[in-house]
Structures are given as structure tokens and as C-alpha cells.
């Protein structure tokens, strides 16, 4: 895939495996999703391409599960780290007339935290949410320097009260119900990410990973300045188009009309729980759709906790009901800003009736000999991600 560095959005992709770099591929696919952490990087390369030293590093001695990998995007202006993780899968293929290929899957730094269980041996006495997050994440390779935590996590994980003189933001939920120790500890089979997210949600926070290997516990930044312009107009209006393909998906398919949350029970019939709250989706109800959903939350011991869980489940489904996807050539905008999650882009998409700033939640770099380099991004309306009761 030759590079025309005269183009303002020209990019190159470089992979390093244990410090050895190469930049030739049959194809590659680099994904990151703010709402579903644990992104993957796939690439296919020929074992007979490139210099001899690089060819040797594409064999089993150089590419093997467990090795560390980094993916960088190079523009005219800078080189930025866009994926960091470890090789998990390597497949070698060969045919007499097709040569030798190697297919590699690299899973990012969030993968183990998302997939592996949190261990129950945590000390919660006098611990803040920030303390517990660091303790859970440390065995998965996250040092304190690689964790960014909002100050609203400086609250007791049991009582929800601010600790160490911390000043909470206006967005922080108030009057949180206290948790007992057994309620706050990881459940059997609960992943490290699931455990952290459960408590972060209670405090009105979101958990995600960054391309450069950091863990973030915070809130979407809807007030930042837009980094990108995505323009897709029809006919004579499309002279400044920079989008190759766009779509907008509006859907009620995954949205329930109401969510019934049943709390802790001491028997097998959860419908007899003394805690039962209902949260409604008024838009779906106004459309005349009846689609109830039930949730049994063992950790909900009162009405407030049940409403919190219901608001979260409702918000999680709403945030995928209005989605814009845009595909552009290259991996950066015309000013050299590499496409990234947790950013704002101005979207002008006249046939879908969109002309506003939107929040970027997912980004995929794709490279192939046939089509060159492209990027697909997913955007949602600002303020559409509901984190839980009181965190809207």
C-alpha cells in the first residue's frame, strides 16, 4: 500500500513486536470501542516480503502468543500510539502457488481485565473506589501511572461518602445508599472490568481503555471542541465531502418499554422480592410498543438501588438507538488529527437530517491492498450515554 505523503491525510501504520518494527501487510484491522473495551488488532502479512531480518521475525521465533505488540499511526505531523497489547493467536498458512502467510490477532491491554475474574480477596475497610480500582487493575498490568480516575471516585466504596477531603463535582450522584461488605465484594465469576464498572456506575462514572494502554474511569467529555469535520452532502452541495460512505441507524429494536427490577431475594422466586421498581422508556411507550424487560439484581437491597440499576439498563439500550457511522480514506483528518474515541466531530449528513456535533465512541482502522487505508467511526448524540441514577 504505497503512501502519497502529498495528501493532507496520508498515514502509515507501523507494528512493533518486542521492539522489532515492520510496516508491510496484506491487510490489517485495528479496533477500539469506548463502550465495549477489549479491542483487537488483526493483520495478515507475507513471510517472504521485506528484508531478510524482518522475514525472520515473522516466523514462529518472532511471532508467538504472549509477545508484546504496539501499533502506531504515522502522519506528516506526528507518530501516535494507537494500540498496545499482546499477541494471543498466530496462524501460519502456506500453499505452493500462493506463498506463506501469517495471520496474527493482538488483543489490547483491556482484554484480560474484561475476560478474567476479579479475585474476592479485597480489603474494603476505609477504601475509596479509587483505591479498589487500583488494587483490582494492578495484577492485570496497570500501574498507578497508567490509570486516570475522576475525583468523584474519591468516595468510600461502602458508604459513598467523600474521603480525604475530596470535593465532588456537581455531576456526582448524592445520597448513595451504603453497601455491606459482602454486597460490595466481587461476585463469583464477575470479571475485573465488570466489578469496576458495577461500582463506577453507582458513582456515575464510566470505565474504558485508551489506545496508548491506559485505564480511564470518568465521564464522556461532551463540551470539548470538535476535532473533526465529517461532511456527506448530496448533489451540488457535496463539493466539500470528505466521507466515502455514511449511515444513520435509528432503532427501537433493543429498547424495552419498561424495565422491572427485582432486588435481593432469599428464595428461588425473584418476583416475590420486597424490592421491585419499574423504569419506563417514554419514547417507546408513546409509540404504542409494549416490550417489558425484567432484571433480577441480587445487589439491589432497596428501591433506590433498584432504580439505579433500571436507569443504567435503560440508558445502555438507548445509547445504541441512534448511531451514525462514517467511513473516510486514511486514518486522520485533513489537519493531521488521528481519529480517536472520546472526541467530538461535527457531522453534516443532509440525507439523514444530521447537522450537529456528535460523540465518537468507536473507531476502526482498516488497510488492504485492494482498497488502501480507511477509517470507520461510530458517533452518538451528545449526552446519550446514561451511566446510572443521577448521572445523566
Sequence-ordered SSE layout with sheet pairings:
Elements: E1 12-17, E2 20-22, E3 27-33, E4 40-46, H1 52-57, E5 68-74, E6 79-95, E7 99-108, H2 111-115, H3 129-137, E8 147-149, H4 181-184, H5 192-202, E9 206-209, E10 215-218, E11 228-232, E12 245-250, E13 258-262, E14 276-280, H6 282-286, E15 292-296, H7 303-318, E16 322-329, E17 343-349, E18 354-368, E19 372-381
Parallel strand pairs: 8-10, 11-17, 13-15
Antiparallel strand pairs: 1-2, 1-5, 3-4, 3-18, 4-7, 5-6, 6-7, 9-10, 12-16, 13-14, 16-19, 17-18, 18-19
Helix pairs in contact: 3-5
Keywords, please?
single chain, 392 residues, alpha+beta, Phage tail proteins - horseshoe like beta roll fold, Phage tail protein beta-alpha-beta fold, three-stranded mixed beta sheet, 7 helices, 34% strand
Description of the structure:
The protein is of the alpha+beta class and 392 residues long. Among the domains are: 100 residues, Baseplate protein-like domain - beta roll fold (Phage tail proteins - horseshoe like beta roll fold, Roll); 106 residues, Baseplate protein-like domains (Phage tail protein beta-alpha-beta fold); 61 residues. Helices cover 14% and strands 34% of the residues. The protein is built from seven helices and 19 strands. The strands form three sheets. Strands 1, 2, 3, 4, 5, 6, 7, 11, 12, 16, 17, 18 and 19 form a 13-stranded mixed β-sheet that branches. A three-stranded mixed β-sheet has the order 8-10-9, covered by helices on one side. Helix 3 packs antiparallel against helix 5. The longest helix has 16 residues. About 1% of the residues have low confidence.
Amino acid at each position: 500500500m504505497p503512501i502519497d505523503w502529498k495528501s493532507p491525510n496520508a498515514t502509515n501504520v507501523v507494528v512493533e513486536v518486542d521492539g522489532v518494527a515492520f510496516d508491510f501487510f496484506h491487510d490489517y484491522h485495528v479496533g477500539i470501542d469506548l463502550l465495549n473495551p477489549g479491542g483487537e488488532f488483526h493483520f495478515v502479512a507475507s513471510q517472504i516480503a521485506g528484508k531478510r531480518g524482518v522475514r525472520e521475525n515473522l516466523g514462529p521465533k518472532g511471532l508467538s502468543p504472549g509477545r508484546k505488540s504496539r501499533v502506531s499511526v504515522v502522519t506528516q505531523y506526528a507518530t501516535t500510539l494507537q494500540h498496545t497489547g499482546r499477541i494471543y493467536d498466530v496462524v501460519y498458512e502456506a500453499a505452493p502457488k500462493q506463498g506463506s502467510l501469517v495471520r496474527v490477532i493482538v488483543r489490547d491491554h483491556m482484554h484480560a481485565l474484561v475476560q478474567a475474574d476479579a479475585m474476592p480477596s479485597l480489603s474494603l475497610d476505609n477504601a475509596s473506589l479509587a483505591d479498589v480500582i487500583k488494587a483490582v487493575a494492578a495484577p492485570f498490568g496497570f500501574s498507578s501511572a497508567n490509570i486516570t480516575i475522576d475525583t468523584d471516585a474519591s468516595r468510600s466504596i461502602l458508604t459513598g461518602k467523600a474521603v480525604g477531603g475530596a470535593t465532588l463535582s456537581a455531576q456526582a450522584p448524592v445520597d448513595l445508599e451504603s453497601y455491606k461488605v459482602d454486597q460490595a465484594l466481587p461476585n463469583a465469576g464477575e470479571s475485573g472490568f465488570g466489578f469496576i464498572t458495577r461500582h463506577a456506575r453507582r458513582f456515575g462514572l464510566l470505565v474504558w481503555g485508551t489506545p496508548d494502554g491506559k485505564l480511564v474511569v470518568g465521564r464522556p467529555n461532551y463540551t470539548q471542541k470538535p476535532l473533526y469535520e465529517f461532511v456527506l452532502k448530496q448533489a451540488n452541495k457535496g463539493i466539500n465531502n470528505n466521507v466515502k460512505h455514511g449511515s444513520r441507524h435509528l432503532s427501537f429494536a433493543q429498547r424495552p418499554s419498561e424495565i422491572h427490577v427485582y432486588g435481593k431475594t432469599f428464595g428461588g422466586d425473584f418476583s416475590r422480592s420486597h424490592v421491585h421498581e419499574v423504569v419506563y422508556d417514554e419514547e417507546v411507550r408513546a409509540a404504542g410498543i409494549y416490550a417489558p424487560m425484567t432484571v433480577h439484581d441480587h445487589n439491589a437491597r432497596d428501591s433506590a438501588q433498584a432504580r439505579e440499576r433500571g436507569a443504567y439498563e435503560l440508558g445502555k439500550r438507548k445509547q445504541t438507538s441512534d448511531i451514525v457511522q462514517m467511513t473516510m480514506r486514511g486514518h486522520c483528518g485533513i489537519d493531521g488529527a488521528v481519529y480517536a474515541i472520546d472526541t467530538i466531530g461535527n457531522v453534516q449528513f443532509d440525507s439523514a437530517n444530521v447537522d450537529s456535533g456528535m460523540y465518537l465512541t468507536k473507531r476502526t482502522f482498516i488497510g488492504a491492498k485492494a482498497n488502501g487505508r480507511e477509517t470507520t467511526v461510530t458517533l452518538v448524540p451528545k449526552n446519550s450515554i446514561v451511566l446510572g441514577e443521577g448521572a445523566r
